[in-house]
Specification:
about 80 residues; alpha/beta; single chain; about 15% strand; 3 strands
């Protein structure tokens, strides 16, 4: 995981689970699954789209294509 550019954030009991904290701590970009089914922490103050890839439940089959389409420039802007 330390060398990963993107890390999957599978849903837990809540969107603020330890998985999300771990992904943010190591510095890879979060790919948050079932984003439309979760209430992201601090969503009123934090623009999650600016540093994470939010994947709706209906778009899960396209995760690879979505991540692959992010250019290096876009990735750097997200850090």
């Amino acid at each position: 995981m330390w060398a990963a550019r993107f890390c999957l954030g599978p849903p837990g009991k809540a969107s603020w689970s330890f998985r999300l904290a771990e992904v943010l701590e190591i510095g890879c970009l979060s790919v948050i699954l079932r984003a439309d089914k979760q209430k992201m922490p601090f969503s009123g103050a934090v623009d999650w789209n600016s540093f994470a890839v939010l994947v709706d439940d209906s778009d899960t089959a396209n995760v690879y294509d979505r991540v692959k389409s992010i250019s290096m420039e876009q990735e750097l802007e997200m850090h």
